[in-house]
């Protein structure tokens, strides 16, 4: 019997390089960290939303059922990847990001209490320091995920973005947590693989210059945005696989991100 593709990917990654933090739990639970794409999926207010055009959903004259659709959308919406080229000229496009940057041991920093206190909260160096004092140092080669609790708001676009408006007029009214640029520089210095967050952007909603994007992407560190179900991951020990649509020359793309959580 052929082995499942995911098992082959994990086995290959593990065989290639154990020193890069690719120790995969021998057994565990798979957790889907992706929101489904539909007409309700949240996109940036100025971005083209996801559209599904039904081509066929019927039984053919020959007697068999046939379903097919066309879809269109912006690269940046729903659970998606930001490639470094998004804010850093000459850096990796979506198809150029090495696979080993999208696979690895994850740490999850829970900042729900801070985010609940302020929709404009930004993860700073002090936040990371407190986490390390409790859980130990974030290792080089980690995938760092920030759990703000904003995923609870996903079903309510206004609560999630901070505004019900669409188009350019909505942008000044965006309110959601993000990551401070100084904390981003610290992550660069720690040589992490990737960053993820359960909000629309790694920069907080009121940002107009997007410094966190620019700091991380200048170092070729990709980002995952609108990540789901981070409450189901432990602070340490899960293994993340984040595979985007492989768009040649892309600045991002729809992302299917999953994690293996160890049983013990």
Question: Can you describe what's shown?
Answer:
It is a single chain. Helix 5 packs parallel to helix 6. Strand 11 and strand 12 form a beta hairpin. With 264 residues, the chain is of the alpha/beta class. The chain has a single domain (5-37, 75-262), classed as Glucose Oxidase, domain 1. It has 6 helices and 12 strands. The longest helix is centred in the first third of the chain and has 12 residues, at 5-16. Residues 1-8 and 13-20 have low confidence and may be disordered. It has a 7-stranded mixed beta barrel. The chain has a two-stranded antiparallel sheet with strand order 2-3.
Entry summary:
Helices cover 19% and strands 26% of the residues. With 264 residues, it is of the alpha/beta class.
Structure keywords:
264 residues; alpha/beta; Glucose Oxidase, domain 1; seven-stranded mixed β-barrel; two-stranded antiparallel sheet; 6 helices; 19% helix; globular; disordered N terminus
The percent range for strand residues is 25-35%
The level 1 CATH classification is Alpha Beta
Tally of helical runs = 6
Superfamily (CATH H level) name: Putative cyclase
CATH topology: Glucose Oxidase, domain 1
Sheet with the most strands, sense and barrel status: 7 strands, mixed, barrel
Architecture in CATH? Answer: 3-Layer(bba) Sandwich
Number of domains as seen in the coordinates: 1
**What are the secondary-structure elements, in order, as H or E?**
HEEEEEHEHEHEHEHEEE
- Can you tell me the residue ranges where pLDDT is under 50 for at least 5 consecutive residues? 1-8, 13-20
What average pLDDT do the residues reach? Answer: 93
Cα shape: globular
The share of residues in helices is 10-25%
Give the helix/strand class: alpha/beta
Q: Tell me the total number of β-strands.
A: 12
Radius of gyration: 19 Å
Ends apart, CA distance between termini: 29 Å
